[in-house]
Amino acid sequence: MRRVLLGAVLLAVASAPAYAQNGGSRTDPEYTRLIREYTSDPKFLPAAWATIEDHPTVPSPKDHFGTIIGAPGVMHRTTEILGYYRALAAASPRVQVQKVGTTEEGRDLSLIIIADDATMRELDRHRGNLKRLADPRATSRTEAQALINSTKPVYYLNGGLHSPEMGSPEMLMELAYRLVVSDDPTVKAVRDNLIILINPVAEPDGRDKQVDWYYRYTKARNEWDDGFPRSVPYWGKYIYHDNNRDGIQITSALQKAINQSYFDWYPTIMHDLHESVPLLYISTGTGPYTEHMDPITMSEWQILANNDIANVTSNGMPGAFTWAFFDGWWPGYAMWVANNHNSIGRFYETFGNAGANTYIRDLSSQRYAGDLVTTPQWYRPWPATKKVRWSARDNVNYMMTGVFASLDYAASNGKLLLANFYQKGVNNIERGRTEKPHAFVIPNPEKQRDPWKAAYLVNQLRRHAIEVHRRTSGENAGDYVVLLNQPYRNHAVTLLTKQNYPSDADHPPYDDIAWTLGYLYGAEVNPVDDSTVFRWPGLQLVRDTVAAPGSVVGNGPNYLLPYTTQALLLPALYDLKNRAPNVNVFALEERTIVGSDTLAPGSLFLEGLSPAVAREFATKYGLRFITPRTSGGGKQHPVDLPRIAIYHTWTNTQDEGWVRYTFDALNIPYTSIQKDDARAGRLRERFDVILFPSSGGGLEALIHGVDPKFGPMPYTKTDEFPSHGTPSATSDMTGGMGFEGLAEMQKFVRDGGVLLTMKESTRLLESGFVRELNPLSTGALFHPGSIVTAKARRPDHPILYGYPETLHIFRGNGPLYSTNKRDRDLMVLQYGTRALRDEMPERDEGPMLGIPAPSAPIAVKSNEPAAPGASGPYVLSGMVRNEDVIVGQGAIFDVPLGRGHVVAFTFNPLHRFLNHHEFPMVWNTIMHWNDLPARQ
Fold first, then answer.
1. Do both 506 and 569 map to the same domain?
2. Nearest to 154 by CA among 134, 170, 140
3. For the packed helices 167-181 and 78-91, what is the interaxial angle rounded to 10 degrees?
4. Quick one: CA torsion of 367, 370, 371, 373, rounded to 10 degrees?
5. Cα separations (Å) of 920 from 229, 515, 569, 611, 829?
6. Does 147 lie in the same domain as 46?
7. Alpha carbon distance 801, 813 (integer Å)
8. Cβ distance 40 to 358 under 8 Å?
9. Which of 129, 276, 827, 920 has CA atoms 20 to 30 A from the CA of 539?
10. How far apart are CA 460 and CA 458, in angstroms?
11. Which residues are CB-contacts of 202 (< 8 A; sequence separation ≥ 6)?
């Protein structure tokens, strides 16, 4: 097996004359001079990248742009970057440019393909071979070995996912040029033995906004730590930093393109290039690793990381390390489409300056896994100094050195990597056959509380390439079955079982630690431990999108709609309002029995609905309509759909973007507002409900926003900065709503509006907005994103219409609030099922003056409402430390204020479009905004 040590190659390159081993190609002296000039320390420049070829027909970045990659003060927009790759493709048969999607704002999502001439002519054959290796059920081991011997691995490089991490889209252009033109033996071996895929800008919308931000604001700043925001307030139309957390839901155009590229090519390795950690972090992770990851992949992470560190260090470059940055638990990162499907997903963190300025960076206090980054450790053999003068070219050099070490390893060990890829599929199938559970059953959606959520779960599994069968006969016909003797068994088990994050883990988790889809979607999922499941009759592979079943019984013109927290009810009502404005909708406030149906509070009576429209909406939204003989009787109120606003700050748009995405995805109308609207006042004239999504930074940031000392800071579209001003605009980002905006928000509520706060935005109430909620010190509570039990304190409250008394919610770390005992009626939902200490039954503490002594003991009854599972566990999936701090405290509060209400969620019910089970709590608040009850 070929294995050329990169250090030896570097020595050869360093001593080579300009016309040496490059097959007669000439070194570009100006590009070479500028590389050295823009590198701030000789230790940051390995000899291999100190020179560059001057090809007579293929344009270098300098030929194309007039500047080299890593030039001070120069960053390129997406169209410029794609223009360069198209120039490469026009000049060389070794390059292709493919469009793989379109962003939410209309920019191209592209994939660059690089290989030697012969391989480029056989791309389809290699892709077909990799697809065959992906499924050992269709490919015998003998056939697999022949494919391994004749197939080239695919190495996928992903740049520019996080927009302020600006170096990788630049570096990848120079790397592509070198891979295309160089005749250096090691570079040529990489080109000859690999297919290289480059995603040049994973987030084009954010890239263009960020480049405009750099030229508009940060290029002129001389100090790194001056407090000025280095990131543009928006990246994509909806998703900010969480665009690397969308691997489970696959909502964004960029994640869809990444997944499509995976299943088009089955890359052996997918490598994401990030920037945040000095000087080069190479992922393995501290652990704990995802429970059901194949151990081969875990070993491959270590091998690749140590290979890269050894190569970087052998080139005289300090600061490369592994292990001590993230954990490896959350399976929803962008590149985990590879790990989840038997390939290898990994990432780098280099040191970026959010632009092309050179800064002195102070590393002296930075710690990772408890250790200073400037100290030598087993995982960091050669640390950086306490201060570093760092340039854009330094960043390019480090990324390119590490990436090429990885490419060299993959090219040298392709057969081993492909054999492991095939073996992991074999292991999955064998585990599904021999280990419990052997399958999962998703009961017929018609039998579930919300047929749409159950159908959605089936469709999501199929989007992950997990096979699902449908039972076509017998008493369980209509059930969906996930047989686990399939190549992606591990991923199916990861998504459908509870997560058991160890409570004694040495390091805190890097992200959420629970994602059990049955819980999050509100769909029933049952494991099957009986191996005869593989022989169940009537199993048919699902090949098309599953529709949520709806039904209509009777011919109207009045209908009842039983309510069981259907996720699409609110969108359906807004649609109905437009389609049939004369239909009157009423909500039943009491449990009502109509024929054989028992209708829970929140069920609807629709007056004047035609049978044709009823059938259309039943099919479209998975709803069930029944014709009653009467209106159902009992207490009712009209459902008056409100005018909704979604508020955003300029300091943090992460969760607000997810809320907008959710509303747009479900076609719920709203208006986006911000500090300028709050200050202008007259909010009640425009809106009935204002949603304030979670926004970090504390009370000061919620009120006062970006520091006014940096103002004015326009975020407006101009000829010079055309990507700004979307999806929101302002003439000045600084200042926040201020006290005047806060007063207008309070006036909005007092005048009859509903303000709905989520998680961190509930801190706004700490301003004295309402008096009844008191910030509660969480002390030793540690509550990373987990699925936990909750209980209704007011089961008849409209916010909880359709939910059982004991339910589950998703909660991460965030604020908590307490109330005086006299105000406990404001608690709609509590965490856990146990009562607070001061609500426990009083113990006999002896006689009390003024109270006659009883002649017989008095039985004391707890005021804790009885509920199914009241003695069950708090944590259903994930992990919480010191849960006694939170159990019994309020999860949702409804605080009347004037003629309106403040509804405070101390968790995020619209988290990453994941926790669909909780969406109806928000929809209930909206549907019944003007019928929320007064204080008890």
1. no
2. 134
3. 0
4. -20
5. 36, 19, 9, 26, 14
6. yes
7. 26
8. yes
9. 129
10. 5
11. 109, 158, 159, 160, 161, 243, 254, 258, 334
**Neighbouring C-alpha atoms within 13 Å toward the C-beta of 276:** 17
Query: Do 402 and 484 lie in a common domain?
Result: no
CA–centroid distance for 643 within its chain? 29
Query: What is the model's pTM?
Result: 0.95
Question: Distance of CA 251 to CAs 82, 245, 654, 913, Å?
Answer: 24, 10, 15, 8
SS3 state at 185? helix
Model pLDDT, residue 149: 98
**44 near 317, Cβ under 8 Å?**
yes
Does the residue 383 lie in any domain? Answer: yes
Instruction: State which residues form the domain around 423.
Output: 6-226+243-428
Which pair of tokens denotes residue 528? 């099957």
- Structure confidence at residue 823 (pLDDT): 96
Q: How far is CA 4 from CA 7, 133, 195, 274, 405, in A?
A: 9, 28, 19, 27, 11
Q: What is the DSSP letter of 706?
A: B
DSSP state of 865: P
User: Do 339 and 385 lie in a common domain?
Assistant: yes
Same domain, residue pair 66 and 159: yes
- The structure tokens listed for 859 are 């039985």
Q: How far does Cα 508 stand from its chain's mean position?
A: 19
Token pair in block for residue 915: 């926790």
Q: 47-97, pLDDT tens digit by residue?
A: 999 999 999 999 999 999 999 999 999 999 999 999 999 999 999 999 999
Longest dimension (CA), the chain: 110
Whether 834 and 596 have beta carbons less than 8 Å apart is answered as: no
Rounded Cα distance, 611 and 619, in Å: 12
Picking from 282, 278, 318, the residue whose alpha carbon sits closest to that of residue 301 is: 282
CB 110 within 8 A of CB 102: no
Residue 24 within any structural domain of the chain: yes
- Give the contacts of 801 (CB within 8 A, at least 6 positions apart): 563, 565, 587, 600, 601, 602, 924, 928
Q: Which string of b and e fits 106-115 if b means at least 16 CB within 10 Å?
A: ebbbbbbbbb
* Cα–Cα distance for residue pair 464/250, rounded to 1 Å: 9
Q: Of how many residues is the chain composed?
A: 936
b/e for 782-821, b at 16 or more Cβ within 10 A?
bbbbbbbbbbbbbbebbbbbbbbbbbbbbbbebbbbbbee
Q: Which two tokens stand for residue 262?
A: 């995976």
440 and 422: one domain?
A: no
Token duo for residue 592: 């009502």
Contact by Cβ (8 Å): 653, 697: no
**Residue at 764 is within a domain:** no
Question: Looking at 395, 428, 461, which one is the last position of a domain?
Answer: 428
Task: Report the pLDDT value the prediction gives residue 854, as an integer from 0 to 100.
Answer: 60
Number of domains in the chain: 3
As a whole number of angstroms, the distance between CA 259 and CA 252 comes to 11
Helix axes 167-181, 185-193, angle to 10 degrees: 100
Same domain (yes/no): 70, 146: yes
Residues of the chain with pLDDT under 70: 1-25, 630-633, 842-846, 853-871, 936
CA 464 to chain centre: 15
- Picking from 428, 463, 490, the residue at the C-terminal end of a domain is 428
Helix (H, G, I), strand (E, B) or coil at 91: helix
Q: List the alpha helices (DSSP H) in 534-585.
A: 569-579
- Please name which of 499, 470, 469 lies closest in space to residue 485, comparing C-alpha atoms: 469
- Return left, alpha or beta for 116; rule: phi > 0 is left, psi -120 to 50 is alpha, else beta: beta
Paired sense of beta strands 827-831 and 890-897, if any = antiparallel
210 within domain boundaries: yes
User: Do both 105 and 70 map to the same domain?
Assistant: yes
Structure tokens at 458: 């089936």
